[in-house]
């Protein structure tokens, strides 16, 4: 059966995880020569509609990107016991559902450490899109990483806005970056979808370092992007498509241990990442994997111990 | 008067304007039917006709504002096509529209040069225009302050601006559409002096008016229009007002108001020391006191802008004031902010406002909806929580019948009635309330003589039923013929009180100009 | 000195944030002064943002990009003109439709041309308007106060910023000192007066709408090729609507428009800089006092004031008490970031209510000119 | 009087405009390599070909009826309420608070309470702009734009920090108790024996929307208040003469308008999502502007325009599901429909009018033949 993917309201070109998911799907299609069905949602009411339509149309598995699908899936899953569903970013406990969640806080922790080490001013920045729990999870992990590498470091945090336009406002991202720079920040981490494009651009223009998110964004400004906190949504989609209808159900955590999240190093940022940095980050990574360090997850108690 | 054909310049034998077979329809309405007209240079040509006869349409065609469906225009022997106003201006035509075409928040100077600027920059144009305007003003006694804003000057002044606009464009042919509708007699006299001056220079003037006296006084020839057709063109010297009126309306018209002497009763309205300060902090009424008795018509004369409008607004309940007003002996609250109109109506005050299009009617409402206007809370028109539209329509049809509103179709929007008929709709609404006190502002402005006759009859009839009436008008003739008592206002104050049979237009005119000493 | 630098930086940010608003606002000013309402500023900016970035990328020249951006915006203007002038359609609907059209078309075409997720590729080098350093910026920077002001605030912006600010006196001059401006203002007030003066209402209005297109084109280009280096989906992010608000705020006058846009820019700059501010509980008390004053004022006026201000007062009092009980009397109150973000909008409303008051639009605005019906 | 019969004005013109819009959309679809005929088939059969399609179409239409009516009512008083977005969002908050915190035994009790809550919250959000307009003349367009942003901030704060269940990622309230769930059209219609799709989200709110249309129609054309609203909208100076208080009318109209916009929440929040999610309004407030203007501010027009937009939304969704036509293209189609039916209708009307006139001339009252020149 043809697999299908449903993108959340931001659309598949959201410069964030929908786009990463789309990347995974296309990679699968290119490698196998098969096709898949897709839809970009335009309204909340379409979640259930799209799920049912794809399920009735025989698509299998059906992947959906985003926590907002949890509710619709809970209602729909039982009606199509023979269809496999894959939900990314949220857990739904049904026999025919695979839930994939990412330990964004762990990845953010590592890039936070790198930011602190790369910073000369001791001040680093974080720019989020809309103020939602997921973004706070990113921010909290990041701040912990920064403080771990440099307890005296200061983190300036900003959110872009309160309407969906906040994910698509590179101009405001740019201004926020400038405001953070003027307060001393010399490394800025953007977890803000399309807004992040403006953050990275301005950081490059102003000659400070930036950190990309979700996919590897190092290539956008070679030599200016310190690293990217990669969240391998693409791998999750690719894996689901490859495994096909018979994919393993249940709860899947993508963390540092299985390279579900991580930091990106490539030719574009090789010169920026010092050996000292690599050593420290790799050590922390090992400790997190082993459980020696636990990075606090904002979602566990809706608060962050540091800021 | 001398033979208009030969008066003026030697080349007077050639008409400066010749219209042949002009026709114009607005959708199914044929406003002009095969109209032919010749006007000689150096003459003043009058055009009269009922409301909606097609006078304005014809002139708008001549000025290129509308396009004729058929017909020819010949200016100074040259066949001319006038597709737009630009062409009309080029052909030496200037027009003063009934509703002025001025930009309210521009200065006089800016309005004059608009469209006739020389060069792309304003400063030199303005300077040049200022000089020229000074000369024109002096030459024709058209005194205006070039820097005043249009919205701040009176209608008389605005009209001068319109004339200056035409002269500034070197118009040889000047069309005036109902120019005196809003002017006081002295302003009108002034206008006519100017027109005569222009005529003596050899300019051609076309004058549309509803006032036969003006036609007789100033025109050389006169044309009568009826239902879109030109029914007659005669030399003014060879006709009489009665004949013209008959040609116009198609029946004999009573040009004088017939009324019995008043029989005043108890005091209905008492006004003491009324003061109004408007939004611009200007004192509009400076302590006005008077009273009106049942069964009498109190005429208030005055040049517009001297407080009469504010007086009506205060009494009508939408202008706040200080002082005392008593109706049938009961005090009225004057502090209300624009919301007291309802309680005034409940007290038996009816009000025909000066400006029927801006205040008295909602132009886009149907006739029956307008009948409820101001009386929408009347239990007569309500059915539980809802309005009883059927009753309202029946009521309207009845009123339209009684007041001879044409066409008697209560579904037609107010804007599609002619001025006279609009006025009748308002009058029907207010008079039929059987009010104790009727306030009437400019009852016959822009209305044809047939309708004037009718309106005047209605007002007198109401008085004879023992109602108190306050009449504000700039038409001295109207004031003199209708009123039982006259007060004259100037600059927010009452200049004096007269009885109509013991005074005359000259004396009232002086009072209206604020010259008490000479008049007394 | 530190505060001084901070102020300079905020003002600097103000200028950048105000620029697109100002251009769009002046664009709207030309159009609306001529009697054509335009809520399609957003769409025109977006179209220009895309086209300028696309063409700048292809040609490598920001200037050609600018021309293309203006061109795209002009096409939208033309449609708006066609709908609202020639076909006497509803100007508001046309504006809404054009905004949506731009939203969809830009991404569609971007995807078709570049296949880069609905974006244009990143612009580099001359494909982008970079910031200009004005002469002597460095040398003069030693002068106290004025030096830094010159260097930090005045120098170092893209040429489009200077163009935008230059447009204010230019607009003023055109409107109030030229024949064209006189006619343009007249046609928005009383088109019949213009018509009878022998001038074509249609062409005048088209001219105004086209100027609006040009300015929106510059505004959009500024977003994608100057402050940013490429187009992203819906990147105007409601700036067209804010510009519209600024236009009304400015009562349709050029210098006021400058003031309004700077004010908006300033509010946004402040918000960007001080998003995470914490207030003290006594501020909550000050709020309570304010509310009491409000209620007192209301009680002395009409029933309407009582009703509205009373409701508001009660609600704010409840919130203040809530803050007070949860934070303790002396503790510092952290205003939630989300609410801080609405500060620019709240302040706008407060300023409008307190200081600006009634704005009368051009009289003939929004109505098509119809001679005969 | 009229040159055209009424049916041509009401049916023929919109139909031809619609065909033009679809024709142009077809060209765009062709340009991206899809089959426009098939696309149209999919849209029509998907939106109108089954009770399932109708269920979605009517669900969207219900939203648009409420926001459209809100704009239309305000427009009758010549107030341009662009704040439907914020008012509907606040209405959602009202519904959420009532459904979450009051234990209802049955939906029949929850529904009236929710309607009241939605209307009161929506009206509250329109109250301040209305008050500022009535009392100080502050332009309602700016304040409502500002209040959209402020409303979004407040909702963001409440959903993320206050109302969200602690373990949920989603900035949304908890699910409402089952007793508050509204019956779907399937449930309602099966009572009278009409089979209707179980899956579609259309619910009993649709009938409330129809009821709202009727109530508003009665209000505007058959009550004293409606009479006053219309009179005020047509002429403020005349309204003052008639003793109609502008302040009162502005306030009351804005409250009704905000209340209607707020009531949209019973459809999307209570009827469909059964919880309050962030950005639940999804632009319906803005679509309401187009709906109201296309519907000529008349409840019947609003109803029809809302159905058209419901069709476009659902048809568009089907297009996305069945073809690889991107969602941006659907936005373009919607924009073209708004443009052609709402703003460029005169393009169709003018030639049609002269055509009718041509056919009518001979049978009309014979007039004197014009002199042939
Ligand atoms: N713009 C227009 N659209 C449609 N019909 C019009 C228009 N202007 C005038 N008419 C029609 O043409 C007829 C003639 O109108 P016109 O304005 O020429 O009358 P008039 O003689 O100037 O009347 P009045 O004495 O009231 O000024 C009217 O009865 C009206 O039906
Ligand atoms: N837009 C229009 N549609 C239909 N008829 C119109 C229109 N405009 C004017 N008319 C008609 O034209 C005639 C004359 O109108 P005009 O503009 O001269 O004003 P009026 O009614 O004479 O007002 P006034 O009282 O100021 O003289 C009226 O009979 C009116 O019915
Ligand atoms: Mg006339
Ligand atoms: Mg008239």
Can you tell me about this structure?
Chain A has helices at 17-32, 46-56, 70-76, 104-118, 133-149, 170-182, 195-205, 233-243, 275-290, 298-301, and strands at residues 4-7, 37-40, 62-65, 85-88, 97-102, 123-130, 154-161, 187-191, 209-214, 225-231, 250-254, 261-263. Chain A is α/β, with parallel strands linked by helices. In chain B, the strands form five sheets. A six-stranded mixed beta sheet of chain B has the order 6-7-8-3-9-10, sandwiched between helices. A six-stranded mixed beta sheet of chain B has the order 16-19-20-13-21-22, with helices on both faces. In chain B, strands 2-1-4-5 form a four-stranded antiparallel beta sheet, with helices on one face. The two termini of chain B are 36 Å apart. Chain B has three domains: 1-92 and 172-253, 3-Layer(aba) Sandwich (Rossmann fold); 109-168, no CATH class; 268-362 and 435-519, P-loop containing nucleotide triphosphate hydrolases (Rossmann fold, 3-Layer(aba) Sandwich). Chain B contains 18 helices and 22 strands. In chain B, strand 7, helix 6 (185-200) and strand 8 (204-208) form a beta-alpha-beta unit. Chain C has 16 helices and four strands. In chain C, the strands form two sheets. A two-stranded antiparallel sheet of chain C has the order 1-2. Chain C has a two-stranded antiparallel sheet with strand order 3-4. Chain D folds into two domains: 1-34 and 324-355, no CATH class; 60-322, ABC transporter involved in vitamin B12 uptake, BtuC (Orthogonal Bundle). In chain D, helix 4 runs parallel beside helix 6 (140-163), helix 4 (84-101) packs across helix 11 and helix 12 (284-294) crosses helix 13. The two termini of chain D are 28 Å apart. The chains are: A alpha/beta (307), B alpha/beta (520), C mainly alpha (373), D mainly alpha (373). Chains A and C meet through strand 7, helix 6 and helix 7 of A and helix 1, helix 12 and helix 15 of C. One magnesium ion binds next to loops of chain B.
């Amino acid at each position: 059966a043809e697999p299908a993917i449903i993108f959340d309201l931001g659309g598949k070109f959201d410069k964030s995880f929908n786009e990463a998911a789309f990347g995974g799907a296309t990679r699968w299609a290119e490698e196998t020569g098969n096709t898949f069905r897709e839809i970009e949602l335009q309204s909340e009411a379409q979640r259930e509609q799209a799920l049912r339509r794809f399920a009735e149309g025989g698509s299998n598995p059906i992947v959906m990107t985003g926590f907002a699908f949890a509710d619709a899936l809970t209602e729909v899953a039982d009606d199509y016991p023979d269809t496999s569903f894959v939900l990314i970013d949220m857990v739904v406990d049904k026999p025919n559902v695979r839930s994939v969640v990412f330990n964004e806080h762990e990845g953010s922790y590592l890039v936070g450490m790198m930011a602190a080490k790369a910073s000369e001013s001791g001040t680093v920045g974080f720019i989020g899109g809309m103020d939602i729990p997921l973004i706070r999870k990113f921010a909290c992990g990041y701040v912990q990483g920064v403080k771990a590498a440099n307890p005296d470091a200061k983190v300036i945090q900003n959110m872009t806005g309160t309407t969906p336009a906040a994910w698509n406002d590179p101009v405001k991202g740019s201004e926020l970056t400038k405001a953070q720079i003027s307060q001393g920040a010399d490394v800025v981490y953007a977890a803000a979808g399309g807004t992040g494009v403006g953050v990275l651009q301005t950081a490059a223009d102003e000659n400070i370092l930036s950190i990309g998110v979700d996919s590897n964004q190092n290539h956008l400004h070679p030599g200016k992007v310190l690293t990217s906190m990669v969240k391998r949504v693409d791998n999750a989609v690719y894996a689901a498509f490859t495994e096909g209808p018979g994919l393993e159900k249940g709860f899947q955590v993508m963390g540092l241990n299985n390279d579900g999240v991580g930091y990106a190093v490539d030719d574009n940022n090789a010169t920026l990442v010092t050996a000292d940095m690599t050593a420290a980050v790799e050590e922390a990574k090992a400790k997190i994997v082993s459980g020696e360090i636990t990075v606090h997850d904002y979602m566990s108690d809706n608060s962050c111990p540091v800021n | 008067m001398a033979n208009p054909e030969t008066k003026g310049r030697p080349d007077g034998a050639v008409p400066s304007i010749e219209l042949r077979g002009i026709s114009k329809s607005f959708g199914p309405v044929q406003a002009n039917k095969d109209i032919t007209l010749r006007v000689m240079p150096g003459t003043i040509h009058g055009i009269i006709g009922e409301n909606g006869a097609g006078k304005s349409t014809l002139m708008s065609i001549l000025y290129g504002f509308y396009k004729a469906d058929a017909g020819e225009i010949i200016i100074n022997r040259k066949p001319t096509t006038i597709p737009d106003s630009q062409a009309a201006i080029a052909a030496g035509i200037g027009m003063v529209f009934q509703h002025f075409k001025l930009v309210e928040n521009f200065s006089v100077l800016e309005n004059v040069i608009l469209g006739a600027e020389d060069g792309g920059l304003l400063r030199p144009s303005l300077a040049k225009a200022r000089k020229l305007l000074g000369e024109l003003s002096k030459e024709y006694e058209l005194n205006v302050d070039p820097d005043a804003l249009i919205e701040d000057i009176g209608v008389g002044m605005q009209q001068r601006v319109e004339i200056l606009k035409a002269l500034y464009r070197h118009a040889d042919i000047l069309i005036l559409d109902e120019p005196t509708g809003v002017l006081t007699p002295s302003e009108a006299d002034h206008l006519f002096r100017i027109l005569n001056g222009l005529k003596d220079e050899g300019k051609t003037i076309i004058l549309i008016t509803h006032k036969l006296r003006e036609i007789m006084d100033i025109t050389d020839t006169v044309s009568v229009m009826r239902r879109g057709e030109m029914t007659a063109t005669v030399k003014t010297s060879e006709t009489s007002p009665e004949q013209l009126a008959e040609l116009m309306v198609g029946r004999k018209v009573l040009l004088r108001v017939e009324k019995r002497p008043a029989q005043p009763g108890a005091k209905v309205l008492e006004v003491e020391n009324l003061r109004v300060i408007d939004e611009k902090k200007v004192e509009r009424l400076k302590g006005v006191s008077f009273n009106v008795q049942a069964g009498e018509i109190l005429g208030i004369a005055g040049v517009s802008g001297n407080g009469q409008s504010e007086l009506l607004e205060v009494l009508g309940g939408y202008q706040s004031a200080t002082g005392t007003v008593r109706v049938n002996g009961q005090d009225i609250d004057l502090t209300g902010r624009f919301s007291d109109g309802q309680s005034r109506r409940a007290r038996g005050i009816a009000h025909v406002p000066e400006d029927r299009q801006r205040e008295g009617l909602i132009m886009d409402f149907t006739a029956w909806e307008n009948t409820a206007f101001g009386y929408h809370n009347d239990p007569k028109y309500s059915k539980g929580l809802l309005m009883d539209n059927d009753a309202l329509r029946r009521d309207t049809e009845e009123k339209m019948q009684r007041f001879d509103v044409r066409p008697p179709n209560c579904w037609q929007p107010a804007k599609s009635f002619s001025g006279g008929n609009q006025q009748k709709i308002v009058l029907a609404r207010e008079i039929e309330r059987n009010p104790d006190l009727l306030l009437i502002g400019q009852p016959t402005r822009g209305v044809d003589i047939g309708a004037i006759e009718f309106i005047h009859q209605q007002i007198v009839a109401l008085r004879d039923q023992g109602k108190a009436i306050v009449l504000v008008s700039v038409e001295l003739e109207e004031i003199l013929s209708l009123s039982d008592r006259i007060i004259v206002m100037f600059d927010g104050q009452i200049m004096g009180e007269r009885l109509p049979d013991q005074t005359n237009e000259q004396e009232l005119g002086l009072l209206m100009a604020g010259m008490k000493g000479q008049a007394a | 000195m530190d505060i001084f630098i901070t102020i300079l930086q905020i003002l600097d940010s103000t200028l950048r944030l105000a620029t697109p608003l100002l251009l769009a606002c002046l664009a709207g000013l030309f159009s609306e002064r001529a009697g054509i309402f335009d809520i399609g500023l957003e769409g025109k900016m977006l179209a220009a943002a895309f086209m300028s970035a696309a063409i700048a990328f292809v040609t490598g020249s920001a200037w050609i990009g600018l021309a293309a951006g203006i061109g795209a915006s002009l096409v939208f203007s033309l449609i708006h003109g066609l709908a609202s002038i020639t076909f006497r359609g509803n100007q508001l609907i046309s504006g809404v439709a054009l905004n949506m059209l731009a939203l969809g078309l830009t991404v569609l075409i971007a995807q078709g041309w570049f296949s880069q997720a609905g974006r244009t590729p990143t612009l580099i080098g001359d494909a982008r308007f970079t910031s200009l350093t004005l002469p002597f910026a460095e040398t003069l920077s030693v002068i106290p106060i004025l030096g830094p002001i010159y260097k930090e605030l005045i120098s170092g912006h893209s040429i489009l910023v200077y163009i935008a600010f230059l447009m204010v006196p230019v607009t003023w001059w055109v409107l109030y000192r030229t024949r064209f401006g006189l006619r343009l203002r007249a046609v928005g007030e009383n088109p019949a007066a213009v018509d009878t003066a022998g001038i074509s209402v249609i062409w005048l209005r088209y001219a105004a709408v086209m100027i609006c297109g040009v300015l929106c084109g510059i505004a959009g280009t500024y977003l994608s090729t100057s402050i940013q280096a490429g187009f992203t989906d819906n990147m105007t992010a409601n700036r067209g609507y804010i510009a519209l608000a600024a236009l009304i705020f400015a009562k349709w006058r050029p210098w006021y428009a400058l003031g309004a846009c700077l004010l908006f820019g300033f509010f946004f700059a402040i918000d960007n800089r001080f998003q995470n501010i914490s207030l003290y509980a006594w501020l909550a008390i000050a709020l309570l006092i304010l509310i009491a004053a409000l209620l007192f004022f209301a009680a002395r006026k009409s029933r309407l004031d009582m009703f509205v201000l009373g409701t508001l007062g009660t609600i704010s009092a409840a919130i203040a008490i809530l803050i007070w009980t949860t934070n303790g009397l002396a503790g510092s109150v952290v205003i939630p970031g989300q609410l801080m973000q609405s500060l620019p909008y709240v302040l706008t409303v407060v300023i409008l209510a307190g200081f600006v008051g009634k704005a009368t639009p051009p009289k003939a605005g929004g109505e098509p000119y119809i001679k005969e019906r | 009087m009229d040159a055209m019969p009424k049916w041509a004005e009401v049916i023929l013109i919109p139909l031809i405009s619609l065909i033009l819009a679809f024709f142009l959309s077809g060209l765009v679809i062709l340009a991206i390599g899809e089959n426009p005929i098939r696309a149209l088939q999919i849209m029509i059969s998907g939106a109108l070909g089954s009770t399932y399609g109708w269920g979605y179409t009517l669900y969207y239409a219900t939203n648009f009826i409420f926001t459209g009516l809100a704009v239309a009512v305000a427009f009758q008083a010549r107030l341009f309420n662009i704040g439907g977005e914020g008012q509907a969002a606040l209405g959602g908050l009202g519904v959420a608070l009532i459904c979450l915190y009051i234990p209802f035994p049955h939906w029949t009790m929850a529904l009236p309470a929710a309607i009241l809550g939605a209307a009161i919250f929506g009206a509250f959000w329109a109250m301040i702009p209305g008050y500022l307009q009535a009392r100080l003349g502050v332009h309602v367009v700016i304040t409502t734009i500002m209040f959209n942003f402020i409303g979004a901030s407040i909702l963001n704060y409440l959903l993320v920090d206050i109302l969200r269940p602690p373990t949920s990622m989603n900035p949304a309230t908890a699910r409402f108790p089952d007793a508050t769930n509204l019956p779907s059209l399937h449930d309602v219609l099966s009572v009278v024996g009409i089979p209707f799709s179980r899956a579609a989200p259309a619910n009993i709110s649709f009938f409330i929307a129809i009821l709202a249309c009727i109530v508003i129609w009665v209000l505007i054309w058959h009550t004293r208040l409606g009479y006053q609203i219309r009179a005020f909208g047509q002429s403020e100076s005349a309204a003052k003469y008639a003793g109609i208080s502008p302040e009162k009318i502005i306030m009351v109209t804005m409250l009704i308008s905000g209340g209607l916009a707020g009531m949209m929440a019973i459809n999307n929040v209570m009827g469909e999502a059964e919880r309050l999610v962030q950005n639940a309004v999804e632009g319906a407030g803005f679509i309401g502007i187009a709906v109201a203007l296309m519907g000529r501010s008349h409840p019947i027009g609003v109803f029809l325009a809302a159905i058209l937009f419901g069709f476009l939304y659902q048809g568009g969704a089907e297009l996305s599901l069945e073809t690889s036509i991107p969602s941006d293209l659907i936005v373009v189609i919607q924009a073209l429909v708004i443009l052609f039916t709402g703003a460029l209708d005169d393009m169709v009307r003018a030639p049609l009018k002269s055509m009718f006139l041509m056919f009518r001339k001979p049978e009309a009252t014979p007039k004197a033949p014009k002199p042939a020149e």
